[in-house]
Amino acid sequence: MEKKTLLSIIIGLIVLLLAACGGGGEEASGEAEETEVIGGDLEGATELTYWTFVGQHVDLFRDAAERWNEENPDRPIKLVAETYPYDQMHNNLLLSLQSGKGAPDIADIELGRYANYMQGEPQLEPMNEYIEPVLDQAVTSRFELYAKDGNYYGVPTHVGATVMYYNTEIMEEAGVDIDSIKTWDDYVEAGKKVTENTDAVMWNVGTTDFLMDFWPIVSQRNSDFFNENGDVTIDNEVNTETLQFLHDVIYKEKIAEITPGGMNQSEEFYGYMNDGGAASILAPIWYMGRFIDSMPDLKGKIAIRPMPAWEEGGNRSAGMGGTGTVVTNQSEDPDLAKEFLAYAKLSEEGSEKLWTVLGFDPPRWDVWESEVVREDNKYYDYFGDNIFDVLLDVRDEINTLNITEKTPDVATEYNSNTAENVLRQQSKSPEEGLKDLAEYVRQQQ
């Protein structure tokens, strides 16, 4: 294990030097390096190393390791959980797999980076024996994100189901019944009542995080940025129409405004929303934690409902964001590593822990009605008790995303230039903006 750790440090130094020369994005800051050992005092324990870029994920694996060791005293594990900054971890992992040395037993891979690990023959262990038995009880589109040639390599951390969060106090003041909002047309009409009868706007459109508006609406409309063959489709008619819609709710319908801070995950936005600046937020279920941590004054005022459909009978949700956890082919005991990973995230209890420990919507929908998941907690206390009722209602309306190695290029260019030019500066039309974006992505190697 010492050799693995030493090599990972060396690779990390190389990556940091490269990053310093080439500059880094916002994700490069990430988590600080930290190591935690669970079960280190158990005699005869098999060591498994776990890499992640999210310190919160260690909470889940710590809980799983402790439960495993209690239930399997004859097969204890010593889990070495190592947290690294986002870019450093992903680059270390990719270099380790390519070199054939230094990779951990288990690792998290963020969705936007996952395609990089699927090039050629994946250096990961298939998880089919654990995933296939639960697929008929799960949101399968989230597992397809981490599959190739019939093999499932990654275990998703959540569905990331996108919903609409309504400020009921503002909506009631505006005279709007939120349950009457079925389509985006209904939503726009409700927004006009909000702007006419309150001091708030209906919505905010971001310019630095398309995960919270543009992409989910594109996905719910059965479109994407790439087709199944990986060809760029970002400038297709549906996507252009969708970006035009986002432009129009701001400047034509006047029910929305540019998101303060550029995104709804900024301190500027949290203060704005906490003070009643807008009547609704479009975001995945995992955004609930942002409300609890950063918008305490809205407790008891936020109701969760499905996304408005683009047309009657259309999809009312989209799966956004995600992390797939994998077992590398360098694990000295891959069978144990795979069994433990399945225990931590795929078993019934592990799936329930995704909710009770992390507050995420588990990919296995069969646990959404379990007594454990329905027990009172801080999320029900803040949002009410219908969270999983909404998810059950839309579980079959979540499309698979076509993620490629160029997906990060789409995100970077859209968040840096396209949204700025089309939505804030209005210097380009939606059609022009997306054509420029598509051409930029096609030129990336």
Question: What does it look like?
Answer:
The chain has helices at 2-22, 55-71, 86-99, 111-114, 128-131, 140-144, 168-174, 184-197, 214-220, 237-251, 267-274, 288-294, 334-345, 348-356, 378-383, 387-394, 407-424, 430-443; strands at residues 34-38, 46-52, 77-83, 106-110, 147-148, 151-152, 155-156, 162-167, 203-205, 256-258, 280-284, 302-306, 323-327. With 445 residues, the protein is of the alpha/beta class. The strands form four sheets. The chain has a six-stranded mixed β-sheet with strand order 1-3-2-4-13-7, sandwiched between helices. A three-stranded antiparallel β-sheet has the order 11-8-12. A hairpin with a 2-residue loop joins strand 5 and strand 6. Helix 7 (168-174) crosses helix 8 (184-197). Residues 429-439 have a biased composition (Basic and acidic residues). This is Extracellular solute-binding protein. Keywords: Cell membrane, Lipoprotein, Membrane, Palmitate, Signal.
Keywords:
six-stranded mixed beta sheet, 445 residues, disordered N terminus, three-stranded antiparallel beta sheet, D-Maltodextrin-Binding Protein, domain 2, 13 strands, 18 helices, alpha/beta
